[in-house]
Amino acid sequence: MVDLSAIFSDNPYFSAGFGLLGVGAGLAVLRQGARRGADLLQRQLLVSMEVPSNDKSYQWVLGWLSRRGAATIQAAESGQGMSWMHRRISRAVLPRHLAVQTSYKQHDNGSVSTNFTMVPGQGKHIFYYQGTFIQVERQRNTKMIDIQSAAPFETVTLTTLSRDRAVFSQILAEARTNALSQNEGRTVLYTSFGPEWRPFGLPRKRRLLQSVILDRNVSESIVTDVQDFIANGKWYDDRGIPYRRGYLLYGPPGSGKTSFIQALAGSLGYNICILNLSERGLTDDRLNHLLTVAPERSLLLLEDVDAAFTRERQQSEHAAYQQSMVTFSGLLNALDGVASSDERIIFMTTNHIERLDPALIRPGRVDVKVYLGNATPYQIRRMFTRFYGDEHAMLADAFVQALAGHSVSTAQLQGHFIAHKKAPQCAIDQVADLF
Ligand SMILES: Nc1ncnc2c1ncn2[C@@H]1O[C@H](COP(=O)(O)OP(=O)(O)OP(=O)(O)O)[C@@H](O)[C@H]1O
């Protein structure tokens, strides 16, 4: 029987090699143990929040980071209310790699200014917020394109000590408030972009409700109905009734249908989601999805609904409308929607109510129908004094008399008053321009 141990033990090369092997294996075990220990420690000590670029809060968080960065720079430079140590820390953690975000702001006089915002660029940054250090890592995945924005897919990951995890909720709440406050006093117009809603252009200055002059008590009755609906969500919920209400404003062109809806949204502090049924690629499913995911506190606006589906088009339930693939039955189903508790207010407008299929405007889809016609004497007088002032009430009566027997739209009146801005007597003398 050959004694192997004797052979190996006498071999110095083998025992050294075996020793190295043992040490290597030991180190590998130690390294793996250390790595596992570090992972376990990290899981215990640290907590992260990842915000993907296709999430609505992504831009909010970037905006928050840029504000924090600007505030930190300002505080670190002025040192106001900062201890020496806090000041040193703030200077030490300033982001070193910034990216520019250009934004535009529309002012009340309609002018637009360009704003440049510095946001943390790709890479790791340290923020110091409410006594907490937060590592912010912004990563861009050039191999993945966000199909909605067509931009590279990005994530921002915030990491802090596990005990400070509550700071993430504070940051998100503050970021949302900052973002929404920028639109304070303005009406955001959304249009559909793929499966989601996107702001269209800049938030518009709110249009005053009293600037849209409808016939006596028409505006007041619609506003009261909408406010009553908004105030009674629980009533609908308790009765299991889908919490939605549809309005149809119909009448000749230029009678103030769209302007009124914009002014109504402004008075409610709501935004407007403009639904374009002819949008290329729009399908029944996407339409249904869009109506379900409309931003909170917004009015859905379906303009010139007669252009989408007239009686003639009902011959085929599945006739798709122009480039979009929305069918009439798809529109009806989308308007009925799922019985969600989310509030939904939809306004439709048309110049030709007689062309609409009764199924489209039956109660439950359209609950309130309001006719906005050409200017009545009441509207003519109110528009005249609104443009020229109450001191010209006498001239207003003369203008109403001059228009007697003629039917003009309020849009035409607006154009006439603009043409004679500061000359109410001219507006009367040139009244023949209106017919
Ligand atoms: N009743 C009104 N009061 C004040 N302005 C009005 C009124 N009606 C129309 N206008 C003015 O006329 C222009 C067109 O108004 P708007 O687009 O609201 O009309 P509309 O009824 O929606 O027209 P259309 O049916 O052709 O879409 C706007 O500039 C608006 O300010």
TrEMBL record:
Could you tell me the superkingdom of the organism this chain comes from? Eukaryota
Gene Ontology BP terms: mitochondrial respiratory chain complex III assembly
Kindly state which reaction or reactions the protein catalyses: ATP + H2O = ADP + phosphate + H(+)
> Topology in the membrane?
Single-pass membrane protein
Keyword tags: ATP-binding, Hydrolase, Membrane, Mitochondrion, Mitochondrion inner membrane, Nucleotide-binding, Transmembrane, Transmembrane helix
Q: Where in the cell is it found?
A: Mitochondrion inner membrane
InterPro entries tied to this protein:
AAA+_ATPase, AAA_lid_BCS1, ATPase_AAA_core, ATPase_AAA_CS, BCS1_N, Mitochondrial_chaperone_BCS1, P-loop_NTPase
Membrane spanning residue stretches: 12-30
What are the recorded GO MF terms, alphabetically? Answer: ATP binding; ATP hydrolysis activity
Q: Name one Pfam family in it.
A: AAA_lid_BCS1
All residue ranges annotated as the BCS1 N-terminal domain in the record? 21-212
* GO CC terms: mitochondrial inner membrane
Give the AAA+ ATPase domain ranges: 243-376
Similarity section:
Belongs to the AAA ATPase family. BCS1 subfamily.
Q: What is this protein called?
A: Complex III assembly protein translocase and chaperone
Q: Which organism is it from?
A: Coemansia brasiliensis
Name of the gene this protein is made from: BCS1
